[in-house]
Amino acid sequence: MMLKLNVNDETSRLRAVVLGTAQSNGPTPTIEEAYDPKSLEHIIAGTYPLEIDMVAEMEGFHNVFKKYNVEVFRPEVIKDYNQIFTRDIGFVIDDKFVKANILPDRDRELPAIDYVLQQINPHNIISAPVNVHIEGGDVMLWNDHVFIGTYKGSDYKDYITARTNMEGVEFIKEMFPNKIVKEFDLVKSKIEPRDNALHLDCCFQPVGSSKGIIYKSGFREESDYMYLVKLFGKENLFHIEREEMYNMNSNIFSIDTNVVVSERSFKRLNNWLRSNDFVVEEISYKEIAKQEGLLRCSTLPLIRD
Ligand SMILES: NC(=O)NCCC[C@H](N)C(=O)O
Question: Fewer CB in 10 Å around end: N or C, the chain?
Answer without folding.
Answer: N
